[in-house]
C-alpha cells in the first residue's frame, strides 16, 4: 500500500480538521474526505472497533485447549521456573491466600495462579478439528480465570474466538518457515514492526492502515461529517490512516474535541476582543501563499468540526451513556482506572451521536498497553485481562440500549496485538512469538464458537514433533488479512476493494472466515 502525493488540489478536496488533545498530541491536524462511495446511500449504521493490546498478549494463557493431551503438554512447559505461569485445570477451586495448594504443593499468594481457580470451560458450537500431532479424541477449551465476563458473552453467542492469527504473506508450514522456502513478513519478533504489520500490512514506516482504507471507500456515506469516519481515542495509529481519510483524534473528556485556545471565547492577554481576531487570522484564506490559504481552509474546517462534535456530545442520548463500573486490580485489591473502558465509553458516546451527525460508517481505534511480560507475568497479565473483560462486557451492555435502541448488531469489536508469546516460560514470563488467538464481539458475530484451526500444543521433545510450532512459537494458520477482510466485508467493503486493501488476500483459499453474519 502506498500513499498518493498530496498536492494543493488534493488537500483542498479532502479537507479536514485540527484539534488540541492535551499533552499526548498538542496540535494534531485531522483530515477526512468523501471516499469513492460518495454517491452511495446506506440506511443502516455500522462501526468497527479495534482494541489493540500493545506489547504482545500471551494468548497461550488467554484461550487454552484443556483436553488431557493438550493440557498435559501445556502444564509441562509452564509449571516450571521461579514463578510458574501455568493456570490451574478446569474445575480447580481457588486456593486461600497463605494456604498450601493441593494441586502444586506451593504456598499460595495473590499472584499465584492457584489463587484464581481453574480455567473457565467454554464449549464451542462446532467442535474444532483435531490437528495432526494431537492424541486427544475430543478437544475441549477454556478461558483464563479473569475472563469470566467474556465467557458469559461467549455463552450468549456474542463473542467468538479466532484461533492462531498472525501476520502472513501466504500460507506457510513449519517446515517451509524453517527452510525459508516461502515468503513471510519481515522482523517477525519486533514490537514496532509487527504492530505496524498488523495495522498496515507493512513494517514500521507504513503510512496507510487497513482501518483507514475501509474509511476511504466508505466515508462518502457520512456526508458533510465524513471527517468523523476514522476515530482514535488512543493517539495516532497507522491503522486509521487512509489515502484520503486521516484519523480524527479525540480525547475522553466530556467535550472530546478541544478547540484552539486562541480562538475560543473568553480573553486572550487580557483582551476580550483578541480571541475573535486570532480566529479571523488563522482562518484567513486570502493569503498570497497557496500553502497558507490551504492551511487556513483546513483550520477553518477544524474549528467548525470541533464545534459540531462538542455540540453533538451535549445531546441527551450521548450524556446518558453511563460511566464504566469501578475496576479493582485482582492481584493488589486496589482501585484503578480502567483506561480501556473509559475509551470505550467515548466510543459509545460517539455511536450515540451518529444520528445527530448523520453518520453511517465508522472505524474506531482504542488500546491498552502493558502486555510485554518478559517477567512478572502473573502480576501484569491477569490484571490486564480483567480490564479487557470488564471493558468489553461494559461496552456490550451499553450498546444494548443507545438512545432506546439496541446497537449490538451494528457494532463489531475485535482484539489485535503485536504477536503472541512463547509457549514455554523464561522463569516468570514469556518472550516474543508469532501466532495468537483473538476475540471478536458483537450482535452480528456468529459467537459461541472457535474459528480457524486451534493448533497442536507442545514444544518438540523426544519423539514428539509439533507440526504447528517452531521452537516455542506457533506458526499462524490464519492471516491478519483473512481476519480483517471478514470484518471489512461485513462493514460494506466490496470484494474488489478488499483485494486492493489486502493484496495478499488472494494468496489464501478462504477470504471470509465465517464468523460474521451477513
Describe the structure in your own words.
The chain has 518 residues and is α/β, with parallel strands linked by helices. The protein contains 14 helices and 18 strands. It has helices spanning 8-14, 68-78, 148-155, 174-179, 191-200, 210-218, 274-282, 290-312, 316-319, 339-352, 354-357, 377-399, 480-491, 495-501; strands at 16-19, 28-31, 46-53, 63-65, 120-122, 141-143, 159-166, 230-232, 248-249, 327-328, 335-336, 361-368, 411-417, 436-441, 450-451, 469-470, 473-474, 478-479. Strands 3, 7, 8, 9, 12, 13, 14, 15 and 18 form a nine-stranded mixed sheet that branches. A hairpin with an 8-residue loop joins strand 1 (16-19) and strand 2. It is globular.
Question: Which terms would index this structure?
Answer:
nine-stranded mixed sheet; alpha/beta
**Average pLDDT rating:** 88
What would the principal axes of the Cα set say about the shape? globular
SSE class: alpha/beta
- Alpha plus pi helix count: 14
From the alpha-carbon coordinates, what is the Rg to the nearest angstrom? 24 Å
Number of strands: 18
Low-confidence stretches: 1-42
- The percent of residues in helical segments reads 25-40%
Q: How can the largest sheet be summarized? A: 9 strands, mixed
Distance between the termini: 27 Å
Beta-strand content: 5-15%
Amino acid at each position: 500500500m502506498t500513499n498518493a502525493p498530496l498536492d494543493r488540489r488534493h488537500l483542498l478536496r479532502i479537507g479536514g480538521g485540527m484539534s488540541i488533545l492535551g499533552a499526548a498530541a498538542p496540535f494534531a491536524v485531522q483530515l477526512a474526505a468523501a471516499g469513492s462511495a460518495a454517491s452511495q446511500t446506506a440506511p443502516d449504521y455500522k462501526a468497527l472497533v479495534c482494541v489493540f493490546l500493545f506489547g504482545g498478549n500471551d494468548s497461550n494463557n488467554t484461550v487454552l485447549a484443556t483436553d488431557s493431551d493438550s493440557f498435559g503438554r501445556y502444564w509441562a512447559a509452564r509449571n516450571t521456573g521461579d514463578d510458574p505461569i501455568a493456570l490451574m485445570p478446569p474445575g480447580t477451586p481457588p486456593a486461600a491466600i497463605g494456604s498450601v495448594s493441593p494441586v502444586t504443593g506451593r504456598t499460595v499468594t495473590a499472584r499465584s495462579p492457584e489463587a484464581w481457580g481453574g480455567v473457565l470451560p467454554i464449549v464451542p458450537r462446532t467442535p474444532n478439528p483435531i490437528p495432526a500431532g494431537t492424541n486427544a479424541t475430543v478437544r475441549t477449551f477454556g478461558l483464563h480465570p479473569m475472563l469470566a465476563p467474556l465467557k458469559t458473552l461467549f455463552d450468549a453467542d456474542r463473542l467468538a474466538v479466532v484461533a492462531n492469527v498472525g501476520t502472513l504473506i501466504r500460507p506457510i508450514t513449519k517446515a517451509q518457515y524453517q527452510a525459508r522456502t516461502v515468503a513471510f513478513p519481515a522482523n517477525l519478533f519486533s514490537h514496532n514492526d509487527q504492530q505496524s504489520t498488523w495495522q498496515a500490512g507493512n513494517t514500521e514506516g507504513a503510512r496507510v492502515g487497513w482501518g483507514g482504507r475501509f474509511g476511504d471507500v466508505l466515508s462518502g456515506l457520512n456526508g458533510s461529517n465524513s471527517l468523523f469516519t476514522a476515530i482514535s481515542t488512543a493517539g495516532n495509529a497507522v491503522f486509521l490512516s487512509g489515502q484520503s481519510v486521516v484519523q480524527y483524534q479525540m480525547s475522553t473528556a466530556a467535550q472530546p474535541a478541544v478547540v484552539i485556545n486562541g480562538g475560543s471565547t473568553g480573553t486572550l492577554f487580557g483582551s476580550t476582543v483578541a480571541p475573535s481576531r486570532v480566529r479571523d487570522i488563522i482562518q484567513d484564506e486570502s493569503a498570497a501563499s497557496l500553502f497558507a490559504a490551504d492551511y487556513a481552509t483546513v483550520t477553518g474546517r477544524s474549528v467548525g468540526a470541533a464545534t459540531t462534535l462538542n455540540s453533538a456530545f451535549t445531546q441527551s442520548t450521548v450524556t446518558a451513556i453511563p460511566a464504566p463500573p469501578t475496576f479493582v486490580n485482582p492481584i493488589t485489591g486496589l482501585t484503578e482506572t480502567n483506561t480501556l473502558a473509559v475509551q470505550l465509553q467515548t466510543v459509545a458516546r460517539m455511536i450515540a451521536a451518529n444520528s445527530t451527525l448523520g453518520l453511517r460508517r465508522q472505524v474506531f481505534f482504542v488500546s491498552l498497553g502493558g502486555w510485554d511480560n518478559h517477567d512478572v507475568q502473573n502480576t501484569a497479565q491477569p490484571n490486564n485481562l480483567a480490564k479487557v473483560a470488564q471493558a468489553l462486557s461494559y461496552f456490550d451492555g451499553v450498546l444494548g440500549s443507545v438512545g432506546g435502541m439496541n446497537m449490538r448488531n451494528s457494532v463489531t469489536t475485535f482484539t489485535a496485538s503485536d504477536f503472541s508469546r512463547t509457549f514455554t516460560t523464561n522463569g516468570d514470563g514469556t518472550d516474543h512469538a508469532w501466532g495468537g488467538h483473538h476475540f471478536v464481539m458483537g450482535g452480528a458475530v456468529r459467537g459461541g464458537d472457535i474459528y480457524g484451526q486451534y493448533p497442536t500444543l507442545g514444544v518438540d521433545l523426544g519423539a514428539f514433533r509439533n507440526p504447528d510450532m517452531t521452537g516455542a512459537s506457533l506458526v499462524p494458520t490464519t492471516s491478519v488479512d483473512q481476519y480483517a477482510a471478514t470484518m471489512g466485508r461485513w462493514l460494506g467493503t466490496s470484494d474488489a476493494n478488499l483485494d486492493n486493501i489486502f493484496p495478499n488476500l488472494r494468496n489464501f483459499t478462504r477470504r471470509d472466515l465465517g464468523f460474521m453474519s451477513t
